[in-house]
Amino acid sequence: xxxxxxxxxxxxxxxxxxxxLDKYGDECKILxxxxxxxxxxxxRLASPAxxxxxxxxxxxxxxxxxxxxxxxxxxxxxxxxxxxxDLQKHCPLLAETAGQIGDQQVRNRGTIxxxxxxxxxxxxxxxxxxxxxxxxxxxxxxxxxxxxxxDFLVDMLTSAVxxxxxxxxxxxxxxxxxxxxxxxxxxxxxxxxAVVGVAAQLKLNQGxxxxxxxxxxxxxxxxxxxxxxxxxxxxxxxxxxxxxAAAAKADAxxxxxxxxxxxxxxxRRHLARVFAKRAVQxxxxxx
Length: 287
Description:
The chain is of the alpha+beta class. The chain has 3 domains: 7-53, Uridine Diphospho-n-acetylenolpyruvylglucosamine Reductase, domain 2, CATH 3.30.43.10; 60-173, Uridine Diphospho-n-acetylenolpyruvylglucosamine Reductase, domain 3, CATH 3.30.465.10; 181-286, Enolase-like, domain 1, CATH 3.30.390. It contains 12 helices and 14 strands. The chain has helices at residues 14-24, 37-42, 78-82, 85-90, 92-98, 104-109, 112-118, 125-131, 149-152, 227-233, 240-247, 265-286, and strands at residues 7-9, 28-31, 50-53, 63-66, 69-73, 135-139, 144-148, 153-155, 158-159, 166-173, 181-187, 194-205, 208-217, 224-225. A 5-stranded antiparallel sheet has the order 4-5-10-6-7.
């Protein structure tokens, strides 16, 4: 199908983009990578009066590692994140997750900000954002907000970004043990989206688990922290029995499991338990 007519703008600064956003309000859509928005427009599931393409805003492209903080501009593509030597060194979980998104064409065009704002329940980034306790920065013409990943994901296809705001940056504190991390998933065969995906970030102390954070995507209407698994393993030795018993609780926080043509709810719960165990074991082996 062909989209309805709309006004197209390609501002080169955040200020100009926000000015347009204030003018059109709910009647406009933000275009970043476009993998979600373009099909929606073509199917006429959305008919905005204006589309604001933020892809030419260079200040949203930076990937910076300084001090204890990692800062990734919202327009950084998945391919740029996957290929960043700084991220591979200081936070491999980001690079590993990016490298598993879609295919090479998707990674070349898709952006981290666009993916997060779309809040697809099968997207890969939310699992990593939760495991890293990331912060997402959004801006309006009036102020800037810093939102914790757990608060940013509101519901299926619903994020905390207000209609007058743009995602500008993702902030992640450098992990104490960068290599003690893993992102594993079962991909949908056609799209590469996660049927279930599990991200784990660990901090070990003499073989015991001092800190652990686990994000799970694909199972529920929004990604979530597997707090039951984390609580069971924090302070414990990561032997086969302990990890297996803890991972059996991976779906405890998922009150509703999604069901579609790719997998039933029960199968998704099973995958969450299996891949939580594998992700923790893989992260521990890399430490």
